[in-house]
Amino acid sequence: MFAGDQNGLQGDPRLKAISEAIRVVPHFPKPGIMFQDITTLLLDHKAFKDTVDIFVDRYRDMGISVVAGVEARGFMFGPSIALAIGAKFVPLRKPRKLPGEVISEAYVLEYGMDCLEMHVGAVQPGERTLVIDDLVATGGTLSAAIRLLERAGAQVVECACVVGLREVKGQHGLNGKPLYILVEPRQQINCSAPPVNGVETCRHDDLILGGNFGSPVNTTSKSD
Amino acid sequence: MLVREQLTMSDYRDKDPLIHGIQSKIRVVPNFPKPGIMFQDITTLLLDPKAFKDTIDLFVERYKGKNISVVAGIEARGFIFGPPIALEIGAKFVPLRKPKKLPGKVISEEYVLEYGKDCLEMHVGAVEPGERALVVDDLIATGGTLCAAMQLLERVGAEVVECACVIELPDLKGRERLNGKPLYVLVESH
């Protein structure tokens, strides 16, 4: 579900500002991908703080004791949320980064496979957990994260992302777990907004979904 | 100008149980990533909400109100500590990343590893000349990565006010590689 669909957040100007603070970089990491770059959001203190606050307001009374963040951009949002709601932060990492005993979950990429790892003992059975990442594309990474937590006996309450498509396409579908997203990806690059760092961005009002760059699955890209 | 406060004895007494609590939560994993290395694992600190909060609060207390507008965090564990500090002190957060992760225009700084070289990148335009910056990472060992981070910031005209780490390995003398810039750490591990 989208934050802006909810009572209380409809028309919330913070969401518009968050969307506009995200930079679109065309053809990264490869042609046809409109990369949603959240680093420009991190440069805007108010918008970054609002992002964290919206998540914190949603999750603070849900009895969540674990915030699991997906490497590496999930690390930029997860810890602040965890600290504010009194939860522990659990990093979910690429292979061989975590020392000591880990459990691993493989997942399918467009070409090939990748793997996500979590420390054994980080999460106890029955713990209520949030999974956080900057963006959801096909849902493959989030699905692997959910499987890791469930294998440890945790209950995944929700997955939270700053950016995501209204429908998570592809075969993953998040194992039926709810998904909470703040803003949709932007695609259009020809517009009147001033360029940022030499790269044209676009205004939220100019959004066209599923437009010029192939099927929606290809318009955002999940990398780390 | 950053006022270098002398910690008074009462500060030490107040902070000491917090530091002790933080240190007790850091797990040492022997022979990782290779034989002979005693790896300082901060993930166990992150599993203790109070100790993690105390860690952030100690840094925030030091840097709030010092006109620091940039917190630069080194991939990836610097991304865990840097953003909470940045949010609390009113600064922007700038990720310093391994090659080819940041989209768009970047500047790169190469640095030497024990065997071979690595590279750190920062977005062009993320930091303006004259901005006062903090560099954050979980740990300083030889200081090579922190030194590269400082170089990136100074190349765009920022002033690196201090480097801040949770843990220092003083035997590796990383402090001496910081070109005279001050280093603040919470915990030393010998």
UniProtKB/TrEMBL annotation, chain A:
It catalyses: AMP + diphosphate = 5-phospho-alpha-D-ribose 1-diphosphate + adenine. The keyword Cell membrane does not apply. Its main location: cytoplasm. Gene3D superfamilies: 3.40.50.2020. Residues 44-164 form the Phosphoribosyltransferase domain. Its EC number is 2.4.2.7. InterPro entries: Ade_phspho_trans, Adenine_PRTase, PRTase-like, PRTase_dom. Pathway: Purine metabolism; AMP biosynthesis via salvage pathway; AMP from adenine: step 1/1. The keyword Cytoplasm applies. It is an enzyme of class 2 (transferase). It is found in: Cytoplasm. Belongs to the purine/pyrimidine phosphoribosyltransferase family. Homodimer. HAMAP family: Aden_phosphoribosyltr. This is adenine phosphoribosyltransferase. It comes from Hibiscus sabdariffa (roselle).
Automatic annotation (TrEMBL), chain B:
It catalyses: AMP + diphosphate = 5-phospho-alpha-D-ribose 1-diphosphate + adenine. Residues 49-172 form the Phosphoribosyltransferase domain. Its EC number is 2.4.2.7. Pathway: Purine metabolism; AMP biosynthesis via salvage pathway; AMP from adenine: step 1/1. It is an enzyme of class 2 (transferase). It is found in: Cytoplasm. Keywords: Cytoplasm, Glycosyltransferase, Purine salvage, Transferase. NCBIfam families: apt (TIGR01090), PRK02304.1-3 (NF002634), PRK02304.1-5 (NF002636). Homodimer. HAMAP family: Aden_phosphoribosyltr (MF_00004). Belongs to the purine/pyrimidine phosphoribosyltransferase family. This is adenine phosphoribosyltransferase. It comes from Hibiscus sabdariffa. The lineage of its organism: Eukaryota, Viridiplantae, Streptophyta, Embryophyta, Tracheophyta.
